[in-house]
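The authors assume throughout that readers already know how a fold can be written as discrete tokens. For illustration, here is how one protein appears when written out as sequence plus structure tokens:
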Amino acid sequence: MRIVVVCDVLGAENNGTTVAAMNLIRSLRAKGHEVRVVCPDQTREGEEGYYIIPTVSFGPLNGYVRKNGVTIARPKRATLEAALDGADAVHLLVPFFASHTAAKLAQEKGIPVTAGFHCQAENFSNHIFLMNAKRFNRGVYRFFDRFVYRRVDCIHYPTQFIRDTYEQAVGHATIGRVISNGVNAMFRPARTEKPQEFADRFVILFTGRFSKEKSHKILIDGAARSKYADRIQLIFAGSGPSEKTLREYAAKRLKNPPVMRFFSRSELVNVINFADLYVHPAEIEIEAISCLEAIACGLVPVIADSPRSATRFFALTEENLFRYDDPDALAARIDYWLSDPARREACRQRYLGYAAQFDQNRCMDDMERMILETVEKKHESA
């Protein structure tokens, strides 16, 4: 089949949306499909199968947008027309401008359309200081509904949580599938020695963008209040606009400065396999593949129980959860797990079995099946 994947956001594989997009693109191509990618990533200009479109200018806000690592596509009808010419299916990644235009064009041409749900309302409202404005966030979902999702034949939800959240906000059921974005096979148990400088420390890892909704400060405060505070080494894997603020905050509270940087995939596998504990304090989360990657390597997680995060459903026991806005509750969980290696090992074994359901190959097979069945259904009803 000839499948067009429209990526309003695509760049380096250092964020969940781009990683999900590239995993799908590579998987579909490996299965023999012709995949055309529409995106604003200028570094791919001239690369076979890529149709490059311009980016949106936010005028005086361009500096702020760049600081947040956001590059959003501006639709170019001629390029989209060329990409959709002779296409059998279209898959949209996020409900932004290029996806809106692509969905309209696909409707006109009778091409089946599927769409991913990779943007939580708070991922947008956080940037305009309205993350906790419930009415505004409901309005964002309703806008997504009118702008894109009502025009598609099937929605891909990474978790049941985000499907329920969206359908409750827009007030109607949708045609969709719940399919995890999946964990790459490279994330597997391979216990390694800690670097010499961390040999006498408890290493606690969190992988997530440096931004407010990921709640790094809760982990900093929780680690500082642990009875093992002097021995805790935090590693924050990621990048983002809050890095300077977080470094300054940590410097006033932690004995050991946190390691804060972007890690390649292979580097991250190594870090996970020498870490003692994984903590996911994020308040806003559609799925958190980073948490699943840690689990797949056998690292015991401690997860915020935020009602706006799907990650809480990865907890196998009550001790794998903590009150999301409570550093003291997190400190108690950290102490619980660090004080008993045998307890951690028993939990680790449980999680290794649990992680099998998120195998990326299986998930990508389900994504292909969703697209093929959507095409088949569309043709049957024509």
